Amino acid sequence: MNRTEEFEELRPLLFAIAYRILGSVSEAEDAVQESWLRWAASPTQPASTKAFLSAVVTRVSIDVLRSARVRREEYVGPWFPEPLLTDTDPYQDPERSAELADSLSMSALLLLERLTPLERAVFVLREVFGFGFPDIASAVGRSDAACRQLAVRARRHMDEGRPRFEADRQEREKLAERFFDAFRDGDVDGLRELLAADVQMVGDGGGKAPQWANPINGADKVARVLASFVHPLHRIGVVVEPHEVNGQPGAIFRDAAGKVFNALVLDVLDGQIQAIRSVINPDKLAHVGPVVADPWALARAAQKARRENP
């Protein structure tokens, strides 16, 4: 097997590591490409290609994350990871997709944001992909003992933020199907009964798309806001496509021309929807596309439809 074939065989793993460290599809793809360039330029053949390339993509991702954190501190409004369509993901390892799905969820990636770049990298390599500490130490440039301490701290932070009850995968899918049926019908009561009493709906527009100023809280308010969207969106030809997004039930919204303008993800736990996260920043949707809609023009069209057909 030549170097190109070896690299392509490991590409899904490299992307999976980089995306979990960075929370960005575009930055993860760049990190994987940089790893290829360094691999192609290396004059020697390592004992383990997997360990070598995993270390390279980890180091690149740590450097990118350190600079990205400055930008995220200046981000307008809530910051969410770039959505990943895991039911159509070309980087997905089908044999381990279900096993790795929870580590891809929006809630898990947001918990990872609490960690330092080194803690995040160590946690991803150890807890998600099962790397041994010698390989992790080589990847992050720290001793075995230091990596063990980083892993303990990271695990503690993650465990503190994790929900107490996990949802069954089939249960999530059935609940999501009922949710989107009620949403398409504008059924306030149907939506309300699926939502947790303290459900929160949050949008990530990054100042580049219209979004509500604060999270919307409570089952009644969220149900009414969701139902109010439906008829104007129907009138301007918006289509809601259910998808698995970051290993969780969700949907992609497209305008009448097929352009993407929203990725919505449901956080389902204990038989109810606990959170609804909406990514509407067009910069975070380009990889979902292939064409992204103008969110401001779409909002104006929806407002006009609402005025003309109250």
From TrEMBL:
Start and end residues of each SnoaL-like domain: 176-253
Domain RNA polymerase sigma-70 region: 7-69
UniProt GO MF annotations: DNA binding; sigma factor activity
Annotated keywords: Sigma factor, Transcription, Transcription regulation
Domain RNA polymerase sigma factor 70 region 4 type: 108-158
Family, similarity comment: Belongs to the sigma-70 factor family. ECF subfamily.
Protein name from the UniProt record: RNA polymerase sigma-70 factor
